[in-house]
Task: structure prediction
Amino acid sequence: MQLVPIRVVVPSSYGQARVSLQQSSPRIMATDWLGSIVSINCGESLGVYQGRVSAVDQVSQTISLTRPFHNGVKCLVPEVTFRAGDITELKILEIPGPGDSRSCGDLQQTELGIPGVGCQVGPSQNGTGKMLKKPISSSAPQNIPRRADVKNQDIIISPQQQCSKSYMDRHVETLTQSKGFRRRHNSWSSSSRHPNQVTPKKSGLKNGQMKSKDDECFGDDIDEIPDTDFDFEGNLALFDKAAVFEEIETYERRSGTRSRGTPSEKPARYRHDENILESEPIVYRRIVVPQNANKEFCTDSGLVVPSVSYELHKKLLSVAEKHGLTLERRLEMTGVCASQMALSLLGGPNRLNPKNVHQRPTVALLCGPHVKGAQGISCGRHLSNHDVHVILFLPNFVKMLESVTNELNLFSKTQGQQVSSVKDLPDTPVDLVINCLDCHENAFLRDQPWYKAVVDWANQNRAPVLSIDPPINEMEQGIDAKWSLALGLPLPLGERAGRVYLCDIGIPQKVFQEVGINYHSPFGCKFVIPLHST
Result:
């Protein structure tokens, strides 16, 4: 029978024993190797196996390992058998002593032992298979630390030892060190704080149960742990993004199709209020008057709102009243829109809330004995209903218009205050002054003493002024306004009118068409919009 030479590496403490075994009989030699933990290198094709020797057959020249590991991963089969011709190198990691009674299936208890530096025994140059012992650095016996010893003491390995260790040895050692660090990190013992202080241990069934649960949760009995982490960066480097997109673009150019979201196509950026869907071109001039407007305004969205003459505006209101939009309805709509604008100017919800009851805003409402004054009284009634302190000035007249009388009766049912003398107006500045003194037709009122006195009071009060439907001629305006509110369509107001706002008083579109105005509502979702001079 011809023996196949195999390179065998054994621990240094067993070097002498290994030579003596060469001189013994094959039966004794095979029996003594049983139970040893070995590492078998079968070349690049089969890889490296580790396990405990369960059988050695010198007749068929085979060796069997129980509970084997293949390249660091536990095998699915309980036992594997190798032929001598398949083995390139055999390393003996641990040899059981004479009094060692451990069974062959106890591999898990010793797989974390650190092997010593061994001597190499290999075939001679003449090919006879005779084993020769090579010199070793030290003949002193080396202890193989058990698992418990590895946890409690630091492991110092020389560079020569590190080079002679197999893949399994380095993997096991790294695993042991990482587990030891994890245990020390999870259980921050008192030795790190006070090296000489010992933490007393508690006894009892409850503590024992907790300890068993801790061992079960944080124990080290892990059969399979990957030796290396997944290399995300390396795998990502294998993907050539530029080449892939170039291939996609080449295909699209050839086929004439184009997919959305390609890198070369920069997506358009839209505002939060901009429509991304394609639509018809926007027409900004939606209102066309029959005569050339003396002045044009535009809204915040860019729509053009032309001004109309006083005669056309008066005709528009007359036709709307003929179709059912009576003066009472128009007064109510004007009062609501004017009060909404006034509440916004007073501060809105920041000023008018239950926490600011002690800071009620005060509004001085200056009205004349005409329709413009009735519009102001309607606005004052709505403001008073919203917890605003309203002071209404209306001069005493023997006979007034029915619309003024009706609005005055409704206002008297509110908490508002009515005065007829300038002396009863407040001496301190108010929050807002609403001017409804001026009228388009009754110009003689400006010569009355009460009118001049009220104008002087308003100019000296230093409060901001809101004018409702002011006249066109600036000479007819005795009070400079900061804001002006126009009805339906604006009049060509001058600079003394301040900033112009437009309110919707509910005139239907066909009424505009009846007077020759091509009209499309510029209000959108609001009833009061600001206008800007073009």
About this structure: The longest strand covers residues 48-57. The chain has 16 helices and 20 strands. The CA atoms of residues 20 and 167 lie 29 Å apart.
